Every structure is written in structure tokens, then in C-alpha cells.
Amino acid sequence: MNAPVAAVCSQSKGLTQDPYIAELSARIHMFVRSTDRSAFIDLFRGILQCEVREIPFAGLEEPVIFVALPGGGSFSVETTPLAPSQANALIDDRTALRGAWLEFRSDQPSSAEDRLMRAGIPSFRHAGSPHVYFSAPGGQVFRIVARTYTGP
Q: What total number of domains does the chain contain?
């Protein structure tokens, strides 16, 4: 542990009454390469039928992709050459992007998975999970579960 971290940690032994963070926001920001932009928009607008908007921001070459989900929550996507390159069509648990994996809730998870499979979105199984995972253009990994799902 580095000195500044150790100093702050030593000032508070154990958990405090009021933690400094309280919950995870229903907002996510991701990055994709420009070459994956159209396919990423097609995935969420065309296949999954989400509301997708493109919002220009000063200082950015391309508009930010904004996806609003009908049940709440949203995510934005910015293009950058520093984002991972397009995931291979042949993806598996060993080669999936190691970063945050997303979980989307749906009233029709089987239908959503079926649309993704028919559209050829790369999918794989993760060890220890009964769910199918998908890889979006740009490599972001996600799964779709029922709104009522409460498991890990």
C-alpha cells in the first residue's frame, strides 16, 4: 500500500457509519473505435430496439452515442482510437474482453437473446454461469437477464 493510501486508511479503522459511496449509478460510459461505431449503433437501435441518440460535444470529433433504456438507466459511448479493437467473431470465455461486463434486464430475455443470435452477435458461455454472454462491436461483454432475476 502506498503512503498516501496507508495514511487515509489508518485514519478510519473499519467501516464508518456513513460510507463515502452509497450505491452504483444506473449510468455507464464506454469507449469504442470509430470503425465499430455503426455496428454498435445497429446493435442497440436495430437489433435490441433501444432509443439511440447521437449528441455532439465540443472537443470531440464524433457525437457521443447515448442509449436510454425504457426501464431506467442509460449509457453513453465515445469513440477513440484507444478503445479495444473489434472482438473476433469466434469469442469464448478465454478471449472475452477483460473489463466491466454489463447486465441488461428484459421482460423478454429469451427473445432478446434469439434476436442477438440471429443477427450473428458473437456469444459465449462463462464458466460457472448459466447465462449466455454476448460481445458488442468494440468488445464490450454483456448478458441479458429477466427483470426478476436476483442471482449473482
A: 1
pLDDT at residue 110 tops 60? yes
Is residue 2 in a domain?
no
Query: What Cα–Cα distance (Å) separates residue 133 from each residue in 4, 9, 61, 143?
Result: 39, 37, 31, 5
Pick from 95, 79, 81: which is nearest to 40 by CA? 79
Q: What is the CATH number of the domain that holds 46?
A: 3.10.180.10
Answer whether 0.85 is exceeded by the pTM. Answer: no
In a domain, 12, yes or no: no
Which residue shows C-alpha cell 435490441?
A: 48
103: cell is 447486465
Q: How far is CA 75 from CA 1, 20, 43, 85, 89, in A?
A: 33, 24, 14, 20, 24
**C-alpha to C-alpha distance for 67 and 25, rounded to whole angstroms:** 15
